[in-house]
Specification:
single chain, 512 residues, mainly beta, 7-stranded mixed sheet, 5-stranded mixed sheet, 0% helix, transmembrane helix, Nephrin
């Protein structure tokens, strides 16, 4: 009996089971072909070629094959074709061939039916079924993907692929027709974005493997953030557009502007490129002197990745006109400066760039450096030596740089001094004998809590006058000349806490 090797077919496909019909004698002919399956003695298909003149060979299929079977024959081989193949079509097939003169010939073919895997499932580490786009995962994450196949004969092998690259072909048979392959992806990188990973279940080369794919989605941190506006010195009060751009974030990065803890986002407008790879923010920035030396910061962050922030910094160089404040020397107070003291004024200057000139004014009069007059100007300081009543008034300092001129607030210098006689007073009084005259003495002093003293003087004597009244800086003496010797001069002195009047106010008493 002639024999053939095994024949494999996939369920649902077509199979051709060959049968050798070559007679031993060249002039012999086939008369009957019978196909048997397994141990059954009843043929499943038969072809009777014993032709009656004009009638074709008679073919007969049993109930199992019904309309699925067909037959063709050549000089040397006959084929039983079964389509579509069913799961129960497997087994041993025997073909019996009868000839007119040669002895009967049998051949055997073992048919193996391959059943593809029924279900293919991909699960994550939490045993959730996943498909399509999965994630997003963070860069550096470790991801476990479990592929399970059920059904199929023979038991399929499972393998993971990335395009044409095989990643893992190790699998475990769990029993009950289950097979598992777990793929562990360690330290996901930017290159893994939108990578398609395919699990293939394969148990035959006759068909394309059953497969299922997932696509990796990643949350990507920004790769770069940059303030693209050229760095340059800025002028206080000018308005300029500062541009910041970031690349490489998924989803698109958000940009924020800061100076210290102060947010500037209300002055910025953000746009995202069509592909989402780039974000641009335009800040309408108007710096002030307060921003000089501070950092303007543009931060980029992925809203889905907490620790993804990148930042670029601009160390601001803001030009501004001088800002001045005027102060006395540390040990002095405006209201307690005594005549004869030395007074220091400090002009505190904040300016960028540095000032090119500093000037001083008393009221509207400019002060010059005059050491001989007790006015010394050095750097940003003014020294007044041995101050007196003439130094009282409102002082200011002025400074200039390339951004403009700054003027300090006025500082009023109050010098405390002993009494001095006020000019313009009536200095001569004509009075008759025995007539009373009131002589008014006015002085200037600080403080004005003054004690007065009056004296009469003629060519022969000096007498204290005790008849007078005083109020603040004024004193009025009552005087009556009674003889020719009572005509002369009245002198008035004042005294306060600073000292005694150096030069008295002198009034002439003459006959009327």
């Amino acid at each position: 009996m002639a024999a053939y090797n095994e024949l494999t077919a996939v369920i649902g496909s077509e199979i051709s089971i060959p049968c050798n019909v070559t007679p031993a004698m060249s002039d012999d002919q086939v008369t009957l072909i019978l196909w048997y399956r397994g141990e059954s003695g009843n043929p499943i298909y038969s072809v009777d070629t014993r032709q009656v003149h004009g009638i074709a060979p008679k073919k007969n299929a049993n109930k199992q094959l019904q309309e699925r079977a067909s037959f063709n024959i050549t000089r040397t081989q006959a084929n039983l074709n079964i389509k579509p193949v069913r799961d129960n079509d497997g087994g041993e097939y025997r073909c019996r061939v009868d000839f007119r003169r040669s002895r009967t010939m049998n051949s055997v073919m073992k048919v193996i039916i391959v059943v593809p895997p029924k279900n293919l499932t991909i699960r994550d580490s939490k045993n959730n079924s996943i498909s399509g786009v999965i994630g997003p995962y963070e860069e550096g994450a470790t991801v476990s993907l479990i592929c399970e196949a059920s059904g199929g004969r023979p038991t399929p092998s499972l393998s993971w692929w990335k395009g044409s690259e095989m990643l893992d072909d190790s699998y475990t048979t769990l029993g009950r027709g289950l097979v598992k392959n777990e793929l562990v992806l360690i330290n996901l990188q930017r290159e893994d974005l939108l990578a398609t990973l395919t699990c293939q279940a394969k148990n035959t080369n006759l068909t394309i493997p059953v497969s299922k794919s997932v696509t990796i989605d990643l949350s990507l941190s920004p790769q770069e953030v940059k303030i693209t506006t050229p760095r340059r010195p800025l002028s206080s009060g000018e308005t300029l557009e500062v541009v910041c751009q970031t690349f490489g974030s998924r989803p698109p990065a958000r940009l924020s502007w800061w100076i210290g803890q102060e947010s500037l986002n209300s002055m910025a407008k953000e746009t995202v490129s069509g592909d989402g790879n780039s974000t641009v923010s335009r800040l309408q920035f108007r710096p002030t002197s307060e921003e000089h030396g501070k950092l303007l910061i543009c931060k980029a962050h992925n809203p889905e990745t907490p620790d993804s922030a990148l930042e670029d910094k601009w160390d601001l160089n803001v030009y501004f006109a001088p800002q001045l404040s005027l102060a006395l020397g540390a040990s002095q107070q405006y209201e307690h400066i005594r005549e004869g003291s030395d007074v220091y004024f400090d002009c505190n200057i904040q300016a960028n760039p540095p000032v090119t000139s500093v000037t001083w004014k008393l009221h509207s009069r400019s002060l010059e450096h005059q050491p001989a007059a007790g006015i010394i100007i050095r750097n940003h300081s003014l020294l007044l030596q041995s101050v007196g009543r003439r130094h009282r008034g409102k002082y200011r300092c002025l400074a200039t740089n390339s951004e403009g001129e700054g003027i300090s607030e006025e500082a009023e210098l109050m010098v405390q001094f002993s009494p001095v006689c006020i000019s313009g007073q009536k200095r001569a009084y004509g009075v008759a004998k025995h007539e009373e005259v009131n002589v008014t003495c006015e002085v200037d002093a600080d403080p004005d809590d003054i004690q007065f003293r009056w004296m009469f003087n003629n060519t022969s004597e000096t007498i204290d006058i005790i008849t007078f009244t005083s109020s603040a800086t004024q004193s009025i003496a009552s005087y009556i000349p009674r003889s020719k010797m009572d005509y002369g001069t009245l002198s008035c002195w004042g005294r306060n806490s600073i000292g005694v009047q150096r030069h008295p106010c002198v009034f002439s008493i003459v006959p009327a």
